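Protein modeling request. Please complete all fields; requests missing the sequence field cannot be processed.
Requester role: graduate student
Desired output: 3D structure, token encoding
Chains: 1
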Amino acid sequence: MEQLLQVGVISSTHGIRGEVKVFPTTDDAGRFKKLKEVILDTGKEQIPLEIQSVKFFKQFAIVKFKGIDNINDIEMYKGKSLLVTRENAVELEEDEYYIADLIGMKVVTDEDEQGTLQDVIETGANEVYVVQFDNLGEVLIPAIHDCILDVDVENMEMRVHLLEGLI
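Delivered output (167 residues):
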């Protein structure tokens, strides 16, 4: 189970005073207002950064980090991920899961076909799970109660019912 969850990606700098445009990878971009700290994943190291201010522009969060006051200090981190610890993550409602916990999960149908959850597509109505089955190939399964019978995050296993027409 992932202990760090991605909340955004630095897409570019904003101005010359060290602000960055962050593309949110969380359901609620407004949560950046509540965050006090994030972890910058440079690929080589993880740097904790304290958030000084947040504002919004189009689909981006404009974030200013405490102690970074110059474009040159932050420019090298374009394209890098911003993470939060599981303790700072948004609390989940019943039947909600972090996408990071679902990817790679073993999926078993009620007819004992087995596969692996490869991706999650976020649509307006509900999420859709992309599952690669051993015998059936790639199947798109809507994340609805009629299809998702059980999700066991601890054991990384999901039981599903494939409605007629999904295969």
